[in-house]
Amino acid sequence: MYFRFEPFFRPMLWGSETWILSAYPNMEAHVSEGAYSGKSLSELVSLLGAELVGHSTYQRFGSHFPLLIKFIDAQMPLSIQVHPSDELAQRQGKGAVGKTEMWYGMKSEKDAFLLSGLKTPLTPATYKEHVANHSIVDDLARYTPKEGDCFFLPAGRIHTIGTGCRLLEIQQTSDLTYRIYDYDRRDAQGHLRELHTDLAAESIDYTILPDYQTHYERKTNAPMDLVRCPYFETKAYRIETPDTKHQTPNTPLTIDWSHEDRFLVLIVTDGAGTLTIDGEQVSVQEKDTLLLPATTQTIVLRGDMTLVSTTKGE
Question: What is the pTM of this model?
Answer without folding.
Answer: 0.95
